[in-house]
Design brief:
210 residues; mainly alpha; three-stranded mixed sheet; 10% strand; elongated
Amino acid sequence: EGTIASVPPQGGRKHPQQEFLQVDTSNILFICGGAFSGLEEIINHRLKGTSIGFNSKLELDQKKTIGSSLKKLENQDLLKFGMIPEFIGRLPVITTLTELDVDMLIRIMTQPKNAIVKQFESLMKMDGIKLEIKDDALNEIAKLAVSQNTGARGLRSIIEDSLMDLMYKAPDQKNLYKVVINKEVVAKKSDPILIYSNKEENQKLMSNNS
């Protein structure tokens, strides 16, 4: 960083005779990120210490999360992970992240501009149907994502699993006005609640459910 770097535009090995591009890195912020799977095991092994002798350290709490382990990351852990000292020295600031909890996952589903819930609401709106996902359903979806250890990526698959059949059948439903998804629907204990603009259809649906 902070220098004029010569960069081969087409790869240095295959095109050794090419002209290099000069890039000023003074105002460039370099960020390296990744999952670094297995790094937490190296950290826990270092923190556990020896378990033999009078000066041994006994680790009684074995239920550590990955995020809590990564908070105690040191350069020696990165060396054991396989990084060379020259590379570690180029990364002066190291930041770790904790796992997403239920509240964070609910915010991810609802608050961003292109949130997942808003996307499904727009898809249903194209067929003239209003989609309402109750708060208890959002909480159940977030809990499933946490239990499956899929993070935010698993939210879409869980919602699609609850709405897949409905999204195919809903456009053919005459006078269908609104669809309500609650906790029981996400848990596969009941079907989505269908509300029709025609009162006769609603009375018929209520009699069938009873």
